[in-house]
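Because discrete structure vocabularies remain unfamiliar, we reproduce here a specimen of the format, pairing a chain with its fold in token form:
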Amino acid sequence: MRLSEMDHRHVVPVAANGRMNLPSAIRARLELEGGGKLVFIEKENGEVEVTTLRRSLRRAQELVRQYIPNGDGVVDEFIAERRAEAAKEFEDGQVASQPEPESK
């Protein structure tokens, strides 16, 4: 595929208050026909990438998923560790007793 086939340019006027109308072709390509939120990512070279919040979150999740071994429940592991720490603190007497609720 040639660069010209991939590079679609759209000139969009921006009003003084910052409003702009996104062309329907772009809305369709970003799956925004029913509305949504955009994310503007400033690149080091000065260019700005535009994507949807949904796609940006999906990309972040994919990046994080690279560092989590398959099948491991990170949240479950964290909760189990915290429960073990709380039990040890209780056994060691490090947990202060909670005051009795005042009766009315």
Q: What stands out?
A: The mean pLDDT is 82.
